[in-house]
Design a protein that fits this description.
The chain is α+β, with helices and mostly antiparallel strands. The chain has a domain of 116 residues: Cytidine Deaminase, domain 2, CATH 3.40.140. Helix content is 23%, strand content 18%. A five-stranded mixed sheet has the order 2-1-3-4-5, sandwiched between helices.
Length: 170
């Protein structure tokens, strides 16, 4: 469908248009909402372990500032979208609030969320702030019915998983 010319007839809804990545589109008087339809998984990668999280997010281990990233999964643990950068912090801290993590999860229709952040220091051990943020996110996930499946700290070649360590129960 050519969006540069007016349509000759009123299209029936829902209107399906293939959009090219990273190309802006402007449609006067039309609200566009992109939704991942069932069966149209953007990446078919299944994430079931912190090792897979580390492999999927390996590029962030080289960053010099903390990046807090969310992975939104369907009921079969398939990614619903590309990794979502929730926040970018400083060398030693990254701010995160449940609304920034779970808002997109609700829009995507996620069945579960895995969060991760990098430690530029290369040390995977969690700080007290990491533990507090994990508890807050886990509680919010339980309340919303979209469980926090894991929180993984990425550090160079290693990682720390709150789920594997038993610090994230349920």
């Amino acid at each position: 469908m050519d969006l540069s010319r007016p349509a000759e007839a009123t299209p029936t809804l829902p209107l399906r248009v293939k959009l090219k990545p990273r190309q802006p589109y402007r449609l006067e008087g039309i609200r566009l909402q992109l939704i991942c339809e069932p069966g149209a998984i953007l990446q078919t990668r299944t994430i079931i372990s912190p090792t897979q999280v580390h492999a999927a997010l390996a590029a962030w281990t080289k960053e010099t500032r903390e990046h807090f990233i969310a992975l939104y999964l369907n009921a079969r643990n398939n990614l619903l979208a590309s990794p979502y950068v929730v926040s970018v912090g400083t060398l030693t801290a990254s701010l995160v609030h449940p609304r920034e993590v779970f808002g997109p999860a609700l829009w995507a229709g996620a069945a579960g969320v895995i969060v991760a952040h990098n430690h530029p220091s290369g040390e995977a051990h969690p700080s007290a702030e990491d533990g507090a943020a994990t508890k807050r996110l886990a509680q919010a996930g339980r309340t919303l019915g979209v469980p926090l499946l894991d929180h993984v700290i990425l550090a160079g070649e290693g990682y720390y998983s709150f789920r594997e360590s038993g610090a994230l129960n349920g």
